Structures are given as structure tokens and as C-alpha cells.
Amino acid sequence: MLKQQYFHIPLLLLGCLLLACTSLDEVNERLDKLEEQVTELRFAVDALQEAYKDGKIIKSVSPFNEGTGGWVITFSDGSTIQLQNGAKGETGHDGMNGIDGITPYLLIDQDGYWCVSYDNGKIFTRLVDHEGKFIKAQGDKGDKGDKGDKGEQGEQGEKGDKGDDGTSVNVDINTDGFYVFYLYEASHPEVVIDSLVTPYNVNPSYLISSITEDEQTHVITLIMQSGESYTFNKVPVTATGIALLTNGIRLASGTTASFEFRVNPSNAVFDYDLLSEKCAIQLDLVGTTTRSAGSYVTKPKYYELSRVELVYNEQGAMKRGQYRAYITDQGLSTTYDDLVALVLSVDNGMGDSIQISSSAIQVSYSGSMITSFAFLAADNEHVLADASAEIDGNSITMSSPSILSAKSLIPTFQTNGIKVIVGNEEQVSGVSAQDFTSPVKYTVISAEGEKSVYTVTVNVTGLPVVYINTPEGSSITSKTEWLTKSHMTIYTPDGNIDYTTDALSIHGRGNTTWGYPKKPYTLKLDSKAEILGMPKHKRWVLLANWMDRTLLRNDVGLAIAQLTSLVWTPHGKFVELVLNGQHQGNYYLCEQIRIGKHRVNITEMDADDVAGDSLTGGYLVEIDANYDETNKFKSATRKLPYMFKSPDKNILQPEQAAYFESFINQLESKLYAINWLSNRTYADYMDLQSYADYWLVYELAIHRDLWAPKSAYMHKDRLGKLKAGPVWDFDYLTFVDYDNFAAKSHIYYNRLFLDPQFKLLVKERWSVLKPSFQEIPDYIRKKAEEIRISNAINIALWPITIPVNGDEQLTFDEAVDRMISVYESRLQWLDNEINNL
After folding, report:
1. How far is CA 323 from the centre of its chain?
2. What is the pLDDT of residues 498-512, one digit of tens each?
3. Same structural domain for residues 346 and 385?
4. pTM for this prediction
């Protein structure tokens, strides 16, 4: 059974058609509206998140008038949000029921064709294959087959046998979140004969799963299919208490300190905007008899409540009912030592305002404080740009990619004390150097002899730093249009410049990943260059690895492939990225898959290569269900979506496209012929060792992109065979527990593993490569140490908000240990399975 994001949806197979299928034109019309709908949903979810943060009160929840299956959320301030629950279509037809989102519902009509409904059975349309033909489910009805897998959205279904000329259908979700229909013969379920990727994206961030209302508390909860929930009040809930999460704070002239507090109940709503006339929170000086006329609160004279904000956890989720208050010194006195409390003005339910107060905390002026701490580039050889530390109480923390080494740093600091010492030595701002490779304690002494000890921690990642500045700081908004004339400088950890240019071109990249908060990028240099010890080339990528808690999956997957005989595997380096002056966290600077002397080293064709031997190569192609390139075709037998990467769209000639398509079709005709094992002529078209090694990499990493298929690269040199590789894209749903083969039944492997000679080759390659594969756990541990500090900074910058790999809520060490454990178990499992092939 599939785990994580991959799950079976039960197929409800009916012997007769309950609702008539609509026409193919109606299907197309419905699908054309999906792009518009996805955009609307994104805006709606953004608005929902803002309303949630603002603590708005819901006035009403009602279905769309036109019956499209969504909901109108109306707040007490008159604002509204529309949340749709699936495909937006014609009035009364395509709406969802407001509970389960889009769930494909399949049945067989009275003519024996497969039909699908995306609206819980209201409208059914016949499935069509890539040639636009309806898919025949059965000739003569066969006996009932085995029970289907239990999916995450329903109970076990029953899988019907095909008849004389029928096709069976299974439903899954691909790595991009789209439903995919897999077609296969019931007698050979391991052989996928076609896959149909629907345009229905079930990205759970944009689908509402349920709406519930507690009649006693009048709380309305909106739950998305991702599991993320938003809780709103339908009537105002009054705060009954305030709990402070600190005992006291210290201030110096002009400084600000903060503390956290909780309001009970956690769903209590109050106005905490200090600029609002309706602001309900104030700071009260406790123990004084002086009151302003008609006021319960005496405001302090020398400092003020300057800001109140919501508090979020490391994953970016709001801590309901928890807030942070900021108090700022006004520079009017150096002698205060007060007790203060937070006071909330609330409605007592009878139209009168009453005040509730927290316990008291001490706010005191201190003459022994460090008020700022920084490392300036002008004073420090290994500081690329001025970097200021964060001061929180008596802890001073510096986490900046601008600091390349902490061994000898000169800090610039400000203090209201008369002396600052480290050990027994007095420190002079901008002069005294310290070794910050471990935390350093600074002691501040006031004129009255008061001492305060600060612990200064400098987090240096030890990684190269990539600085990119676009013209006038322009945002990178496209993944197809180059932003040219950008500046890039890459610094090594020792402070030297590895590479610099003022002619960088950059744009976004990725399909699903481009829609994530942390963006990946493609880089194009003006001329070939060696980058961080990697061979010369113009084209590079910056992978964000946002959904990977370890940040290691892509690197480890490529490291496994580099142990094999595959012609070439991309190399990469972990770096820190600073884009237009803003630290973007940890990135993987990686070689892009291209043809070249130091990349996929095959003949690079030009437009004149249209006849004879020159027509035979080289070709670099990608099998990808996205099917979004200009030059593409689907193979005749397997219907695999081939896209040309090289020759690219500016070079590829009709003769070249026709030759390669014919080559693939001939390969498939040999591989899937009735007597294919009697002569094995298919082997004249395929480099079988490359396919064996490629498969081993995918199985060890538990890489399931071949299911869709997606990002499956292949190449063919002049006069050569088709070779598998390079491998790519290991950050999504890899290195997770899975007790089955990941790639044995997909693309061409469904056939190859029926060939005894190929199975023997796989066993031989496993025997040769297994000792090297056993070294990967140590490699993971080494890489984890290399990026440990960088990972901590990165997760603070980019908390993971969607579950993908199952380790999102783990600590870094826990996630790494889990990855190693999964890999070691997989190695043993594969050893047993391969030996028993």
C-alpha cells in the first residue's frame, strides 16, 4: 500500500451507468476553467490567513448562491472571503458538497466505457486517452477481482476484472499534486500501458475540507485538506485573564525589550493595535495612588508599551492566544525600578467596560547593559558586510552569511556601562579582537558597580556565500524570462572570491517548487566558468530544497548515482544565498543537466545534422508527464511523454525529431513484441547497464518520480544506444519508509524485469556496487555536520508548512537519523529482494 502523499482512491465500479456521460466538449470547457480557479483559491487562502491573524469574528457562513460547492465567509466588519471546494463549473453542476474536496469517482457505463466524476457523482464524463479515444473498460464482464487498496479518502473498493478487450484503471496523485489515471491490463497489473495526468491539482493548501461550528462555544473551525486549520469566533469571546511569561525586563536609554504573555481563553478577541482608538491593552504602573481622571490605568512616565504582536512557532503556525509585548525606554530617566502590569479593557456583557490585569513584572533601568553589538566589514577581514547581532535579554546571537570565520573578530558595541571586560581584560569597541569559535562572555560594569554578563554566540555556517544583485533590486518573478545584467560574487569560506561577474542572467525554475515560498533559480553566465571547483560551464541552478527538513536529499541522491557507471551525474555545493542584500538561507548550487564536455558528454547537434550518421545523435530527452516543452511526442507503444532538451527548440529540425521518435518507437516495438525474448533485439537499442545502475539509484533513494513519470532523463550519442540518466530531483518523497519496489514497474522496467538476462545484470551490478553503497550513511553524517549551523538558520527563515517527507516536525538530528535508518533498512531489503530476483 502506498504511503505519505501517494495514496489509492477507491474505485467505485458500477455495472451500469447511473448518470449519463456528458460530451467531450463539456469536459474541455470544465477543464479550461481550472487555471482561473486555482488563482482564485490562492487569493482566498491568503485572505483567510490574514483574517485569522487579525482575529476577525465570523458573522455567517453560507454556500455560494450559484451552487458551485464553495462557501462565503462573512466577517463582522463586513468583509467576505469565498472558499471554493474543487472545480468551478456551470451553475448547479460542478460544485462540491463542502466536505471532501475533489475526489475522482469512477464507474463503467452501460456501453462498457470508463467514466469519471469530479463532483461526487453529479456529472460523469468518459475518460479519453492521449489520442482522444474513449477507454473501453470491459468486453464481457469478468469475475470480480481482488480487493483494492484502502485509500486515505475512503474504504476499500473492489477492482473489476477486465473482459476480452478491456482496460483497468487506477488512480494516484503525482508528486506535483495532480490526479493521475494509470491504465493497465488486469492480467498484467504491473505493466502500466498509459498514464493520464488530469489538470485537477489537489494541492491541499488550496482546498477546504470541512467547516464545523461548536454550538456551545460558537467557534467555527475551517479545516483545509492539508490538515491546517483556522479557528474563528462567531460571537465575541471576552478575555478573562492574562498570564505573563517573564519575571522582569531591563532597559537602557532608548532601548526596547520584549516579553510574551497569554490571554485566556485562547480564542478571546481584543484590539491590540496601539494606534487604534479601540486599542484594549495598556501598561499600568502598579502600586501608585496617582490616577488620571476616570481611568483605572496609570501609564509609566519613562517608558511605554510600543508594540504588541502575535507569536508563531518554528513551523510558522500561530500560537493561539499568545502575544509578544515590546516596551521602549523614552530616554527621560536613569533611576526607575518599577512594577508594572498589562491591563485589558473588556466588555462585561452588559455594555460596561471593565479591566482585567496581569500579575506584576519588574521594569528597571540598568547602567550595565550592551545596547548594540555588530561586526563591521571595515574592521574585519573575514566579514563581507556589516552584520548586527540580535540582543535578547543577556544573550547576544549573530547569524549572518557575511561572517566567513569566527576565529578572530573585532566587535563594535555600545554600552551604558563604564567598563566591559572579557575574562580580566578590558574590551575596547572596534579594537579588541576575540575568538568566537565558541561562545564568549562579556561583563559590563556600571558606575555603581552593578555587573551584567552577556553571552555572545556567533554562528558561522562555514559554507560559501553567493551574493546576487539584480538591476535596481528587481524581483525575479518569471521562470522563463531572463533577468539580465545582474551581479554575482561567490566567496569561499576563507574569504576569497571564487567567481564574480556583472553579466549574470537569472530566472526562476521548477514546476511545483516555483510555487513554494522559498524559490529556486536558474543561472546563466556570460561565459563558461569553473564554480567552487566544479568544471566549467555557463549553466547552473540554485535548488531551494524547501520541503526537505534535512536539506540533504538531493545531494545524497546524486552522491549515490556518482558511485555507479552512469555517464554523468550532476555535482553540487551547499551555499548561503544573499539576494539583493537579503539572506535567503541555504541553497544547493548545482550543475544543470546540459550537453557539454563536462556534463552529458555526447555530440551536440546543430541544424545541419539532418542526414546520415550525424542524424543519429546526440539527443538529450526528458520523460515528463508535465509535457510542457515546445518539442515533444508520445511514444507509440508505452505512450511515454518524451520532451527534447537538446537539440533545443532553436536548433531541432523536423528530420531530427522524426528520427528520434522513430528510434524510440522501434525500441518499444522490439521490447514489447510477442517474441521479444527469443531474439532480444531490443538490446540493440538500449544500454542495459545504464538502465540497471539507474534503477539501483532510484530504488535505494526510494525515488518514485518514474510513476508519473517525471524528470526521467535519457540520452543517445551519435551511432549509440539509448542510455538512462542523468538522475534528478530527489527532494520530494524520497528516503521514506516504503516496503515495495519504487521503480520496478514503470517506464521500461515493467518489461526489462521479465528478461532473465537483465535480472542477472542487475544482480551483478548490485554485487559490484553494494560495498560503495554501504558507505552512504557515513557520507550523510559528514554532510549533516557540514550544514548543521546553516540548517538551523535556514529553518528559522523558511519554516516548512506542508507535509511531504514526513520529517517536517522533527529536529535536524532526528530527521538525519531517520534518513540514515531508512537508507540502511532499504539497503538490506534490496539486498534480499535482488538476490531473489
Report:
1. 28
2. 999 999 999 999 888
3. no
4. 0.72
